[in-house]
Amino acid sequence: MKSHKQPWFTWAVLLIPVLFMSACATTPPVTNSKNLLNTCNVYLASNRLSLPETPQGETPKNAMDCYQAVLHQDPGNSDAAKGLWKVEKRYARRIETALRTNNRSQAKKDLKRLRVVNPESSFIPKLERKITPRSKTTTRRTVKPAKKQLETNRADIAAQWRKQIRERYKSKPSKQLKKSRSNKPKLIRPTLNKGKEFEI
Predict the structure, then answer these.
(1) How far is CA 15 from CA 2, 19, 28, 77, in A?
(2) CA-CA distance, 164 to 180, in Å (whole number)?
(3) How far apart are alpha carbons 178 and 191 in whole angstroms?
């Protein structure tokens, strides 16, 4: 009896720690996610939003990668989701301050980083309108050539009309002009014949 029980007991003793270690490896530790959240909040406070970029296989070095790592371990973590939203809001504020100081280059850079954080962010369309507004110079440039074309067309028409009048007067000699003027009916004022009036 003892000879049959010894191999079963030895196999059980060897398999129990292996199963325990595999179970611990699959379940993420809670303490690790809490520590990551603390580091994420530190990165957010120091404005390390999405830079410097973290290389593959290393610990996160900015707030965005840190919060994403927490969500990778614990997808239902609300604190990590709020942290990512805070990163978006911080970028939106930075873009608005850059636009107030007329620093459009910095605003465009921050907008690119915001798209990296969340390409479907609700802040992006409003900020794009502010960065690239419809300039009045483009409308004026399109209107000015049209006005110039109208002015040139009018000038050409007037010049053609003057040429036609000159050609007409050149073709007629001066005598014909005088005859044409003499043929016009003259306005004759009625004159009283004084002699006939006083005849009886």
Answers:
(1) 21, 6, 22, 34
(2) 20
(3) 27
